[in-house]
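Entry 12.
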Amino acid sequence: MARYLYGNPPDYLKRPPARLQPILAKQGKPNIDIDRLRRDLAGVAVIEETLVVQSPEHWQKMIAGLDKSIDAILPVSITAYPTEVWNSHPQPLVERKLPVLFWCLQDHDEPDFWRWSARDLLRTLGIEVYLARNHRDGIERVKALAMRRFLCNSRLIVFGKQNFPWNADAVGDRMRKPLGTEILVRPLEAFRRHYPAVKDREIREVIDQRLNQRYRLGTVKTDELLQAVRTYLAIRAVLREEKALGFGVNCFGDLVIGNGRDVPCLAQCLLREDGYIAACDGDFAAMMTMVLTSFFTDEAAMMSNLYPVSYVGALTDHFGDPLSPNARRYARKRWPNIARLAHCGYIGVISPEMTPGGSVVLNDWGGTYEIKRDGLGCGIDAELVAGRPLTAAELYFDGQRFLLGRARVLETTRHAGMPHCESSALLEFDDLPGFVELISREHAVFVYGDHIESLKLLGETLGLTCKVV
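Predicted 3D structure (tokens):
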């Protein structure tokens, strides 16, 4: 389901088009129709004017002089021409360190297998080389190269004390070297100080313009709704100041236990509509996972706590109930692959476009078994679409490993008499024990559809070690 965007996000929230530099091996008939490719990649990549190699010396000077904004070199051969300059004189590519992308056979949508040997030669020399398997694979690779540039010098903000295992003070810097993203830690006061400057008129405009069909009023109190919108506007002000891609707030380790109820659930949804990403609890690794999934697939994503239903004792301790599936609908032999998603009294902060009806309900914040629901705050109550396949993803704290798995939505379950867990989602994984064996933490990110191959390709391009369960 495509991400819903309200208006036109600023440029720093848009994945840029990749820039490709075609280089023709020699004057003659090229094996790639560049004009056709330029039309096919419209909106995804900018293809520069083709440069024609005149001599090995010209080739060397040309490669050395390419603009730093070029994401990849697109070698173009001459039909039936037996040798090419990148084979006879590869050293300029070694020195320039630019990726090389061999395109597929356009008329047949097949890989150009004559490039196998060139690929291996250049990779042996340490050059980053890709061979498009087909047109779609080529587009995905081009998008991945653009993502790499997009992430370079990007920022995410976590608000609150760093006292959970996703401690950005301790390991947040691990994201910078492999991915280019800086994790900024700011106190809660960083957005709360903006509260006095938020005008009542601004709050009313948001309510009138944004809280329409996508948001339905439930049990949320009027004052709490006004505060939720104020929180949204305050956090947005900080994100704009820092030009950050998104945010998370450490609610349970700081805001809530400090008796604050200005929880950012509604702010998460509204800021996603503005083009940002947002995740719960200030989990910077989950935030980075959402950056990879949402900005690359252009689809909505959500995160939540993952609870395997086979952990009967642990779930009972946490919820006061094991939340076991209905045995008549779901045979016990299936339970090892079944898990629930639940967070803050509901499934999690789900954007409206991920729900069956395209809307969410604004209720009071749900609390937990330990921190009782008190009727304050503004939470998001929503359902997932039953039967839809899901891709589950987790980027590890080291910013180098990427875990992917397949699941599907079974149902959204309503739990009567459990205000701290009013609803949860029931998922069935292809291999939940295998996924859990390699899991980084309880926070998993989900996007509808099977995006395994696309995200593997992205991970490969970004230098991540991908594991698919």
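Annotation: DSSP finds 17 helices and 20 strands in the chain. The first strand starts at residue 18 and ends at 24.
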